[in-house]
Amino acid sequence: xxxxxxxxxxxxxxxxxxxxxxxxxxxxxxxxxxxxxxxxxxxxxxxxxxxxxxxxxxxxxxxxxxxxxxxx
Length: 72
What we know:
By secondary structure, the protein is of the alpha+beta class. The chain is 47% helix and 14% strand.
């Protein structure tokens, strides 16, 4: 829950900045340094995106064949 609050605050700061194209968050995909931690962040970020429904950040979820099913 604490991590979710941090991410929600980050999303709010990005939304308030209104950078149009620079407020991007890209998660998932192949080649991440720590896939387990990255997947945890992805799950939290998806939840925050669903709850906030902000215009920014522009959120990109990269998928590949090993993407965990609950994220996919």
